[in-house]
């Protein structure tokens, strides 16, 4: 995953996909975002407090005493129980809803070839739910020490020739289980192997302007 996602749907569009009859209205004054990079605060779903929440959490987690800001969490490391992910699988499971994400494909050989951006989304254009792990806890600051990393599967098989790594997108029923803090940790981790297959996605080239994360116009995702 190259590190850019799209959240253009309304908050309730995401929530109702998992919880068909939400008990309250969710709002987000920031509106749609077409080019979200790490280091910002995308919408995230979680039950880290007592109730289900949809709010903005920092994308990127810097564990204590680490110099690295981790925006992605590799699935193979999670399955191996490797540091630092093991400490979060029991009490840091969240979802990042999205309408799609971007990847960049080199157009030539060489050390720094030009790259073509692609927008990848569900074939049926339904919202996606990326599994993620967060270090945030109720009452904590919303900073790098309490941010989140999106789970990626480096061995999932690429989107044809675009990119081998991709975020683990869970179908709605499994996404609901992933969020449930009472769902057993081992079984929750096993869900990560059930992410949507390559056949669930479509992709197309988009304009070069999306290389700049400040470019936020709706035409960011239009095919060229």
User: Helix count?
Assistant: 5
Contiguous low-pLDDT stretches (5 residues minimum) are none
Compute the separation of the termini in Å. Answer: 21 Å
What class do helices, strands and sheet pairing give?
Answer: alpha+beta
User: Quaternary arrangement of the chains shown?
Assistant: single chain
Q: What is the radius of gyration?
A: 17 Å
Secondary structure: number of strands: 12
Q: Strand content of the residues, in percent?
A: 25-35%
Task: Calculate the mean pLDDT score and round it.
Answer: 90
Write down the overall geometry: globular
Main sheet attributes: strand count, strand direction, barrel closure: 7 strands, mixed
